[in-house]
């Protein structure tokens, strides 16, 4: 985002997991027969994409989800459409200009694979302040938490971390998401951590932080119990 719509990104996620299970092992074996493919771990850029992999791609057999301040499904986002319209109307012109300038500079067909945090933080904050992040995210059923939890009956263990003062992903939204997951899937181990700070609070943190060490122990506890990808 914002180079691609979220629905297109989700389609790409589904294609990736289908490719990883069907074609990737044989492609690697054909070109590099001396290499043993390690399918025991992977990483997703963005907490929302990690969750969507677990929710919408049961064939991926995700072992565990580790995600920080994941973006919200629209049906648990505390910022409602009326508030979005109000933000658009009342946000300062210079804040809209940040978004407009970035969008105007996107080359047709451009693909951005990743941007390490906190790069583009100014753009993120402008998208939130103007409500224009919803233009890219949409309101389709597939973007709802209700839909996501109906696709996969068996969810993996989850470690979710959230900043209490997050100005981009409101804590109240992930509080509600966690509540819904626990209500619908009480059997799923879910470690929800709330720490002081804004979006990206965890960037300087290491395993010497008690909350991070506790989360790592949670991951170790469940990692070996799950099946491998292939």
From TrEMBL:
Keyword Hydrolase: yes
Lineage top rank: taxon: Eukaryota
InterPro entries: AB_hydrolase_fold
Gene3D superfamilies: alpha/beta hydrolase
Keywords: Hydrolase
UniProt-recorded Gene Ontology molecular function terms: hydrolase activity
Name by which UniProt lists this protein: Putative alpha beta hydrolase fold-3 domain protein
Organism: Phaeoacremonium minimum (strain UCR-PA7)
């Amino acid at each position: 985002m914002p180079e691609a719509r979220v629905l297109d990104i989700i389609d790409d996620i589904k294609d990736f997991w289908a490719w990883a299970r069907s074609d990737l092992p044989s492609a690697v074996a054909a070109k590099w027969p001396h290499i043993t493919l390690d399918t025991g771990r992977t990483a997703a850029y963005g907490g929302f994409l990690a969750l969507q992999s677990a929710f919408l791609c049961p064939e991926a057999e995700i072992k565990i989800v580790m995600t920080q301040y994941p973006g919200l499904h629209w049906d648990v986002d505390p910022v409602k459409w009326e508030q979005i319209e109000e933000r658009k109307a009342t946000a300062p012109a210079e804040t809209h200009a940040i978004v407009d300038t970035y969008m105007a500079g996107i080359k047709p067909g451009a693909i951005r694979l990743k941007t390490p945090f906190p790069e583009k933080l100014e753009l993120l904050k402008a998208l939130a302040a103007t409500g224009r992040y919803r233009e890219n995210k949409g309101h389709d059923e597939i973007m709802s938490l209700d839909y996501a939890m109906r696709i996969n009956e068996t969810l993996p263990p989850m470690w979710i971390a959230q900043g209490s003062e997050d100005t981009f992903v409101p804590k109240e939204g992930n509080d509600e998401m966690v509540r819904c997951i626990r209500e619908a899937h009480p059997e799923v181990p879910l470690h929800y951590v709330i720490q002081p700070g804004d979006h990206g609070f965890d960037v300087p943190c290491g395993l010497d932080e008690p909350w991070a060490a506790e989360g790592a122990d949670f991951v170790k506890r469940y990692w070996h119990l799950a099946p491998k990808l292939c």
